[in-house]
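Try this one yourself first.
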């Protein structure tokens, strides 16, 4: 399997004399054949600035930098695929941070690109190819004209057309999982936040956070427009907002008003679940699904990344347990990173956390972060590093009643034969 690299103009090549390597945290490692799948439809190859590609010289067997002014290349995977290894590289300028994306090791093999990844969910619904831009533009015009005073539709139109956010696009296409952002504030200071970064962080937030407080009517208009089919999902908590539960005073009456008018579809919240009292109110108002974002079930790791304000991981656990006990289908948005998530102590803690909270689904989501910056803020490994593939196999064995997936699903998903939909 040949190393893949790029020049300073972004042209991508495979090296005939260098074998590809990957990274598991700081450790540069061999890529095994059973870790590779063909580059998925909808994936993107990107050049990693400020890096040098590292490979194995096929003639000598030595690990070497590719000579010349070249950069490492990674793949950005669509939803449904879990990264197993980072690209093999070293930083050429350690003061520079990579943009906030989830870089995956990519190789050239059998006249095609392959990536170190695993199929975790049906990729169809979140494949950008299935978002028709012409239809989207038409629907944006239709709904913004129908609700000219609705600031949320105006905000989401930029998310859909400018940022190409598929959840926002679904809101206009009136299908699958749609977005209804509500919050400009947050009770956490996530290190890798994609909508707000302090000037001194060294990162550029790839999205702009909403800067207004919506009216309840603006929220219910979007919810009622979207909840038109049995399988529709409308979700609070998007990448363009802060923590939605900080706006429980808006969410609770909005849910109640919508449910007075329709029982169609499902209402979901993507949340850090730190504000337990607020979550209880939202659950009791008629919530159907809840996805909680977490990076670890260990306090020191969780706190280092999320920087929670006036809540702890125990609050998160209480919120999940309450929602589960009330019949809400609960899942975690598990931000995974090769060389960290697959640490022995991380795996053990997460298994116990899942058992205590009664989760139905672990959504394996690739953490978008500069690896060196992330590794610099979190605790060092305390146990053995098992590898992402083995970690997933352990979860499957130890948590047989919990689904490993990549995104939120409606209740009928859990009663179906999921294997029939897991195709490339």
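Now uncover the answer:
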């Amino acid at each position: 399997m040949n190393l893949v690299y790029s020049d300073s103009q972004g042209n991508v090549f495979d090296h005939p004399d260098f074998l590809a390597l990957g990274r598991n945290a700081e450790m540069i490692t061999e890529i095994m054949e059973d870790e590779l799948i063909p580059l998925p439809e909808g994936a993107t190859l990107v050049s990693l600035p400020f890096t040098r590609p590292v490979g194995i010289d096929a003639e000598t067997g030595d690990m070497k930098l590719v000579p010349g002014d070249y950069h490492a290349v990674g793949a950005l995977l669509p939803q449904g695929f879990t990264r197993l290894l980072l690209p093999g590289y070293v930083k050429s300028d350690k003061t520079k941070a990579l943009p906030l994306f989830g870089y995956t090791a990519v190789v050239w093999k059998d006249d095609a690109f392959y990536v170190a990844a695993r199929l975790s969910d049906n990729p169809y619904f979140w494949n950008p190819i299935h978002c028709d831009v012409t239809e989207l533009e038409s629907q944006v015009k239709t709904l913004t004209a129908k609700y000219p005073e609705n600031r949320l539709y105006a905000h989401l139109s930029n998310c859909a057309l400018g940022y190409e956010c598929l959840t926002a696009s679904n809101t206009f296409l009136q299908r699958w999982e749609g977005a209804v952002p509500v919050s400009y504030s947050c009770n956490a200071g996530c290190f890798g936040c994609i909508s707000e970064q302090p000037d001194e962080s060294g990162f550029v937030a790839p999205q702009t956070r909403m800067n207004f407080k919506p009216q309840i009517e603006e929220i219910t208009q979007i919810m009622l427009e979207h909840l038109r089919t049995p399988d529709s999902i409308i979700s609070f908590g998007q990448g363009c907002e802060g923590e939605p539960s900080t706006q429980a005073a808006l969410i609770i009456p909005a849910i109640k008003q919508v449910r007075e008018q329709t029982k169609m579809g499902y209402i979901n919240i993507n949340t850090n679940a730190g504000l337990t009292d607020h979550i209880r109110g939202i659950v009791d108002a008629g919530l159907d699904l809840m996805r909680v974002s977490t990076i670890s079930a260990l306090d020191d790791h969780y706190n280092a990344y999320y920087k929670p304000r006036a809540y702890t991981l125990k609050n998160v656990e209480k919120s999940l347990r309450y929602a589960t006990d009330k019949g809400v289908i609960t899942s975690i948005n598990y931000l995974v990173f090769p060389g960290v998530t697959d640490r022995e102590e991380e795996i053990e803690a997460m298994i116990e956390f899942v058992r205590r909270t009664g989760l139905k689904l672990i959504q394996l989501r690739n953490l978008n972060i500069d690896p060196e910056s992330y590794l610099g803020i979190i605790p060092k490994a305390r146990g053995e590093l098992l590898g992402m593939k083995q970690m997933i196999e352990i979860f499957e064995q130890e948590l047989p009643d919990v689904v490993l997936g990549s995104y939120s699903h409606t209740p009928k998903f859990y009663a179906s034969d999921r294997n029939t939909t897991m195709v490339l």
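Discussion: DSSP finds twelve helices and 20 strands in the chain. The longest strand covers residues 12-24.
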